[in-house]
Amino acid sequence: MMKSAVKPKKALGQHFLTDMGVAARIAATLDAYTGTPVLEIGPGTGVLTQFLLQTHTPQNLTLAEIDTESVVYLRAHLPQPQPRIVEGDFLTMDLNELFPGNGSFCVIGNYPYNISSQIFFRVLDYRDRVVCCSGMLQKEVAERLAAKPGTKARGILSVLLQAWYNVEYLFTVSEHVFNPPPKVKSGVIRLTRNDVQALPCDEALFRTVVKTSFGQRRKTLRNSIRGLIPPGAVFPDERLAALRPEQLSVDEFIKLTLIIEDIRKNQGQ
C-alpha cells in the first residue's frame, strides 16, 4: 500500500493499523482456510488486505467498507485483479445474498471499537455458515468474548459465542501502532466453529436466560431469573440457583434453560 491520503474518521471509529508485522499476524489467523471465501470488514486502506491476498485469491476475498473515501482509495491502489469491494454497512448486509448458496465463509477485520459487539452478534446470526471469525478489537472486549466461567470478564457474548464457537484470545496489540492511537490496547481473537448443530433446549429461551441473568449479574440466579418462571414455582436445583451468571458454563446455562422449560410446562405456561 502507498501512503494513505485517507483521513481516519472518529464517527466511524477508524484507527488505521500502521504495523505491518501485526497485520501479517492477523491475516495468518486464517491460514487454515485458504480455500474458503473470506469477508474482511472495514479494510480501510488495505493494510490487512494486502496480507490476506498473499494466501487467498482475489476471487475468494470480499471487502465490506462503509467509508466512501476508503472505497475510492482501495479501488485505486489494490493490485489487479482486485477482490470484490462492497460499499455499505456490514451490520445491515444480507450475508446470504453476499455469499449465495450454503457454503462456509470466514470473517476477519480490524473491527471498529464502537460496533465490535454488534459485529459479533451479527456473526452469531450466520453461525451455520461462518466457520471462522478472527480479528482485532478493544482488548477488554476481546478478553470478554474469550472469558471462561468464574471470571469477572464473562458476559452475554462470552456465553452465546462459546455455545457455537471455540474462542481463543491470541495476542495483545499496543495502542502505539495505530493512526490515530486509541486510548486503549487491542486484542486479537479467533472464533472457530465447533461441532454443535443445535442446542438441546429452546434456543430463543436460552438467549433470553443468558441476557436476563447477566442483566442483573450481581444477583444469584434465584433472583435474577425470577421473572422467567411462574410466581411461587420452586426452582429444583439449589446449587445452580445460588450461583451468579459469570460462574456458569455453557452446559450449565443449557441445564438452566431446560429447568425453566420444565417448570413452565408443569405450570401450564
Structure notes:
With 269 residues, this protein is of the alpha/beta class. The chain has two domains: 184 residues, Vaccinia Virus protein VP39 (Rossmann fold, 3-Layer(aba) Sandwich); 64 residues, rRNA adenine dimethylase, C-terminal domain (Helicase, Ruva Protein, domain 3, Orthogonal Bundle). It is built from eleven helices and nine strands. It has a seven-stranded mixed β-sheet with strand order 4-3-2-5-6-9-7, with helices on both faces. It is elongated and about 65 Å long. The termini are far apart. The model has no long low-confidence stretch (mean pLDDT 92).
How do you describe this structure in short?
This protein is α/β, with parallel strands linked by helices. The protein has 11 helices and 9 strands. It folds into 2 domains: 10-193, Vaccinia Virus protein VP39 (Rossmann fold, 3-Layer(aba) Sandwich); 203-266, Helicase, Ruva Protein, domain 3 (Orthogonal Bundle), CATH 1.10.8.100.
Strand order of the largest sheet: 4-3-2-5-6-9-7
Q: Distance between termini? A: 60 Å
Oligomer designation: single chain
Q: Helix coverage percent of residues?
A: 25-40%
CATH class bucket of the largest domain? Alpha Beta
CATH homologous superfamily label of the largest domain: Vaccinia Virus protein VP39
Structural class: alpha/beta
Number of domains in the coordinates? 2
β-strand percent reads 15-25%
CATH topology of the largest domain: Rossmann fold
Query: Which whole number gives the mean pLDDT?
Result: 92
- Rg, rounded, reads 21 Å
**What is the CATH architecture term of the largest domain?**
3-Layer(aba) Sandwich
Ranges with pLDDT <50 over ≥5 residues? none
- How many H/I helices? 11
Order of helices and strands: EHEHEHEHEHEHHEEEHHHH
Envelope shape: elongated
